[in-house]
Amino acid sequence: MHRGSAHGNPGESPADINVNALENFEVSGVDDFAVTLFFWSLFASAAALVAFFVLSWSWITALLAVLVGFVVFRHVTLKWEQPKIGNHWVSRGRGDKPQGGPAVPDTRHLPAVYFLYVLGSGGHTTEMLEIIRQQTRGQANQHRRYVISSGDRSSQDRVQQLEAQISEAFPDERAGTRDAFLIRRAREVHQSALTAPLTCLVSAGHAVNALTREPRARAATRYGYQFKYPHVVVTNGPATGFILCVVARLLKIFYLVPQNRLKMIYIESWARIKTMSLTGRLFLLTGIADSVGVQHQALARLTGAEYVGPIAAG
Amino acid sequence: MSRHEGRMCFVTVGATAGFPQLLAEVIKPEFLQCLASYRFKRLEVQCGPDYNWFAAQVEALPDNYGIDIRCFTYTKNMSLCYVRCRGEAGVRLAGCVITHAGSGTILEVKRTQAPLIAVPNPTLMDNHQDELADVIEPQGWGIWGKLGQLTNALARSQELVAQGRLNDLPPYSARSFPVPESERVTLFDWMVLTCYPEVLRQQQHLHDLDEVMANYEQKNEGRGENLEDLTRLAVD
């Protein structure tokens, strides 16, 4: 496989971007947002350390209580504010109507439509790619970002296959733009539980980057600023996806990103018929996702999650 | 009717981990004999990390019962292998795909309609595979096999082939993209709209209108009434 140019240059039309650009997208670069956040969190930890020695226990408890209270309050408010999901949302689109009315939902006239998909490995990737296939349509205002675990060659290859299919179907700018983001795996397959928290932190740092780095293809375009943060984050099971969602929620809780971005959807694996996976249970328990979808009716009845139909089964 | 290719059996252990027990099982003489008795001509094995070991095992086989055995580590285009196990009228008889019961593989094989035998790896702690086991046979997606009982599973799989007429399927066509607008998944689009509350309200209204319109048409089917009151609603 030949390697294409590193990235589409700003201002280049979206259709010109080489699919192979996915291969060369590294996490090495960081944007201002992540750097600023990093130094602020360093500052905050230093302040916390000083406070720990200077303040009395009652003060420490009080401050911690205020912090926890704030986070919980914000979390609950965000949950309260999230829109009710209608039944028709999860049904298949009603499409080209003979009467000529617009097919809803119509997102073609929005300034930006930006999806971030978290790919896991093996079966997770297969399902996620099918979900993307089932929902993508040609519109020039869309951007897709794929978050892939570094070292997962198979997922990278398959994303490129899918992207090739999309550009074949939409050779013009309707294919939209796309990029890939390689992030550190939260836990290697045989990693010990001792070092896992550390690597989780590293991948959380990478997640901030993946969530806030503006797509290069859109940087200098009209509405480019609308592409700064993804609208919808879709994940279906890998631990990386959960970490990414926790980070996204925290960013929202502390008003670090606009409130009308980073909506999160978790889709439970098609292989889950009677019980939720660990990730699924975590999502249900914490309520950080705006929608937890399952693909079997029996499971939806048991857990109270949203039934979205077997969308990954095609 | 001419059959250009004999039946093919494709064995896959997936991309992530090896499954040597399954590999050892498919080159046992009794299984090869069983394959030969169902007129299988080829056995292709995707063996993952155990390639070298498996290739040596194949070399050392005393007899291959007329079956052409090939193996490789991994291929980017697995669905091509599944399609070659799929029966097609006038082209080939339905063979069989034996997998490690990963959900991704099961999904993909199901789409191609190739006969499927799923053999879970007992050394991996993946309890959700039990759930698949309970539904896979009642739903007709394939056979749930066990290590040590592969010949049995192959016989049942070939029974299913005969029942489902899987030998005479129409030619396989890769599914088209984009998905027709009427079958698209729209959940993600609605979710995007929640970022733009104004537009969401508007589209929700349009959707409700559609619903009313559809109901109205259903009720007045064939009466040819005009839609005056509905247009008034639309203006509102």
Automatic annotation (TrEMBL), chain A:
<keyword id="KW-0812">Transmembrane</keyword>
<dbReference type="GO" id="GO:0004577">
    <property type="term" value="F:N-acetylglucosaminyldiphosphodolichol N-acetylglucosaminyltransferase activity"/>
</dbReference>
<feature type="transmembrane region" description="Helical">
    <location>
        <begin position="40"/>
        <end position="73"/>
    </location>
</feature>
<comment type="similarity">
    <text>Belongs to the ALG14 family.</text>
</comment>
<comment type="subunit">
    <text>Heterodimer with ALG13 to form a functional enzyme.</text>
</comment>
<dbReference type="GO" id="GO:0043541">
    <property type="term" value="C:UDP-N-acetylglucosamine transferase complex"/>
</dbReference>
<dbReference type="GO" id="GO:0006488">
    <property type="term" value="P:dolichol-linked oligosaccharide biosynthetic process"/>
</dbReference>
<keyword id="KW-0472">Membrane</keyword>
<keyword id="KW-1133">Transmembrane helix</keyword>
<dbReference type="InterPro" id="IPR013969">
    <property type="entry name" value="Oligosacch_biosynth_Alg14"/>
</dbReference>
<dbReference type="Pfam" id="PF08660">
    <property type="entry name" value="Alg14"/>
</dbReference>
<dbReference type="GO" id="GO:0031965">
    <property type="term" value="C:nuclear membrane"/>
</dbReference>
<protein>
    <recommendedName>
        <fullName>UDP-N-acetylglucosamine transferase subunit ALG14</fullName>
    </recommendedName>
</protein>
<keyword id="KW-0256">Endoplasmic reticulum</keyword>
From TrEMBL, chain B:
<dbReference type="GO" id="GO:0043541">
    <property type="term" value="C:UDP-N-acetylglucosamine transferase complex"/>
</dbReference>
<dbReference type="InterPro" id="IPR052474">
    <property type="entry name" value="UDP-GlcNAc_transferase"/>
</dbReference>
<feature type="domain" description="Glycosyl transferase family 28 C-terminal">
    <location>
        <begin position="8"/>
        <end position="135"/>
    </location>
</feature>
<keyword id="KW-0808">Transferase</keyword>
<keyword id="KW-0256">Endoplasmic reticulum</keyword>
<comment type="similarity">
    <text>Belongs to the glycosyltransferase 28 family.</text>
</comment>
<dbReference type="InterPro" id="IPR007235">
    <property type="entry name" value="Glyco_trans_28_C"/>
</dbReference>
<dbReference type="GO" id="GO:0006488">
    <property type="term" value="P:dolichol-linked oligosaccharide biosynthetic process"/>
</dbReference>
<comment type="subunit">
    <text>Heterodimer with ALG14 to form a functional enzyme.</text>
</comment>
<dbReference type="GO" id="GO:0004577">
    <property type="term" value="F:N-acetylglucosaminyldiphosphodolichol N-acetylglucosaminyltransferase activity"/>
</dbReference>
<comment type="function">
    <text>Involved in protein N-glycosylation. Essential for the second step of the dolichol-linked oligosaccharide pathway.</text>
</comment>
<dbReference type="Pfam" id="PF04101">
    <property type="entry name" value="Glyco_tran_28_C"/>
</dbReference>
<protein>
    <recommendedName>
        <fullName>UDP-N-acetylglucosamine transferase subunit ALG13</fullName>
        <ecNumber>2.4.1.141</ecNumber>
    </recommendedName>
</protein>
<keyword id="KW-0328">Glycosyltransferase</keyword>
